[in-house]
Here is the input.
Amino acid sequence: TVKYGNEIYPNVGIRFKGNSSFRAGGDTLKKPFKLDFDRFVEDQTFHGYNKLNFSNGFKDPSLMREKLAYDLFQKAGVPAPRAAYARLYFTVEGRYDQEYLGLYTMVEQVDQRFLMDRFGNEDGLLVKPDRLPDLVGRGEDWKGYERNYELKSKKKTSDTARLIQFIKFLNDADDAQFAQEIKQFLNVDSFLRFLAVNTVLVNLDSYLGTGHNYYLYHNTATGQYEMIPWDL
Here is the structure.
């Protein structure tokens, strides 16, 4: 049960999130969480949001870096999640009574609501690449891509085929073809802004470094792919 002021939301799904941020929490209660408001109650939202993420800022004594980073992406014109601050209190009957967990960064989920809000459509392919040195090919069949390109939308044959075509183009096109055709596949302006902000922030736990913590979305209105930052 989630309580916010006088508002009560029953049967909300909750789980731990993160990797290093979860492990760094140790024996403390200040773990990173994901709340899923319509996991068990159909169409239940929190002020329009289906899912919210709560980052514990385990490496940031100021608790400002992630919030400011998301704000900077937005100011640079990059589609990025909204972020705000939240104090969390935890009750477990017979064990904890309004136990203060601490101040968290509350981050919007990249999901269908996010896509509709930013792009005006949510029927394109959404993937979360992970542990890739770049957008590398895995053959002609989608099964070769599933491990490193995690689907976050409903599988559509045309969309996966388009992504394979895009990745093949990136890896095989010569310089002249690349310059002439890249805008058919990618929102180049937004991508350059994405790279610029990541560089300014020295955010190496993303596309520029470890090859994860970002989303790739096929905007069906433009036919172009968009990169969306994540986990700052």
